[in-house]
Task: structure prediction
Amino acid sequence: MTNQLEFRGKWTDIIWPVILIALAGIFTLGIAVPWAFISYRKKVFSLTYYRGSSMSYDGVGGEYFGQMIVGLLLTLVTIGFYALLGYYEVRLLKYDVEHTILPDGRRMQFRGQALDFFGQYLVIGILSTLTLGIYAFWGYARMRRFTLEHCYIDGKQLRFSGTGGQFLGISIVIFLLTLVTLGIYSFLGFSTVKTLRWDSENTLIPD
Result:
């Protein structure tokens, strides 16, 4: 048996953490972004519910900054291959996943390997190019599914039930509403909330 997650946040809950990330990038030359990102993740999970109770996130800005610095140094030492082959992304993803906690105290585990992710991105990149970008919507759902299938709770694998067709539909609605409102729909965070809600509702947690 599996249980879906539920995101209960509104645009007013999301807009300020998102603005904080943008301001951190502009006024601190990106140095404060890890702290702003962790603040955003804490807010998102406090609004994400599992079996009627909110989840939590115990990442620390300084730790995340350290992970980024180590990843950057390894990227420089390997002339870019550490990032190109997916090791940098997986390093940060592992930190993010393993600081995600269910209401009952269970912590998620991440078992993904960099080269597996590199292979997925390579396929998505080729197919998106061949389809003039159309496959990118299916690529998003594909990576979401692939990532969650490498996340575990008590040794049990998470699942993702969303499809590329669904994400395309959501993206079209977001685009049209953003167009009609002259960008306000996306600027105020409505689009972010809509995507977070879709991601959560299609994330399946095993008992």
In short: The chain has a mean pLDDT of 96. Strands lie at 2-7, 48-50, 53-54, 56-57, 100-101, 109-110, 151-153, 156-157, 159-160, 203-206. Residues 2-206 form one domain. The two ends are 6 Å apart (CA to CA).
